[in-house]
Specification:
CATH class of the largest domain: Mainly Alpha
Number of domains: 2
Structural class: mainly alpha
CATH architecture of the largest domain: Orthogonal Bundle
Number of strands: 3
Order of helices and strands: HHHHHHHEEEHHHHH
Shape: globular
Distance between the termini: 61 Å
CATH topology of the largest domain: hpI Integrase, Chain A
Helix content: 55-70%
Strand content: under 5%
Radius of gyration: 23 Å
Strand order of the largest sheet: 1-2-3
Oligomer: single chain
Amino acid sequence: MQNILSFCEYLLHQKRSSSHTVIAYKKDLEQFFQFISIQYSISNIAEVNSPIIRSWIVVLLEEGNSTTSINRKISTLKTFFKYLQKNALITDNPLLKITSPKVKKSLPVFINEKEILNLFEEISFQNNFEEIQNKLILELLYATGIRLSELIEIKISSIDLNSLTLKVLGKRNKERIIPISNNLKKEFDKFLSLRLEKDTTINYLFLTKNNKKLYPKFVYRLVNNYLSIVTKISKKSPHVLRHTFATHMLNNGADLNTIKEILGHSNLAATQVYTHNTIEKLKNIHKQAHPKA
């Protein structure tokens, strides 16, 4: 367990991982340590070998864990054992012989443009702080493609309405500047005039009814409730609005590198997944329009 604690400290202070990532890694490692303790009576991490790790993967599969979830756990172990080897706590890395299960690739789910227009034009938002904030949250997620975690961390000082920019703190504490439109500026003006009247010292932009910082479940429920009014897609999360932003940008002529920079992707491969949605759109248009399609 001491190794886990020191590893988490390393992630936080040297790798600059988010607290959310560290908690997920810690949970995966505790689960693995519990497994090797019960199944193999192992307490010394140096005794772990490739067959033991493979047996854990088999158990995870038998328990019905998705391949995506299992691959995340394997990724946790890879990072952990690299850390142990780097610090001379083990000599051999058993993860070098481990192959991750293949994940079935699926296209990112997104909302079509007509449904998005309905969200902002057909739904009536009341002229009070709560509903003006709700609308701004939805507008911001769709207009910028920011992550849920990034939205929650936005501070009043992050917004520059003169230059029409928003400063966002992304993964690994990397800052990026995102442009905002004049229409979004109007929403910010309306919201900030009410926000500054709040009796709170909290500098975070968005607040709960109790003037506290927003939390993930709050935003998830908010987005899910409003999207349920305009779309029947199964997934109705803040991340779907991120997918929607990227897909609509690409469909309307934006280049991949621009979308990559706005989304805060570390490499272009992560952004290229949205080209598949565009290809599917082209296929549908071709099928409808071509006489022999």
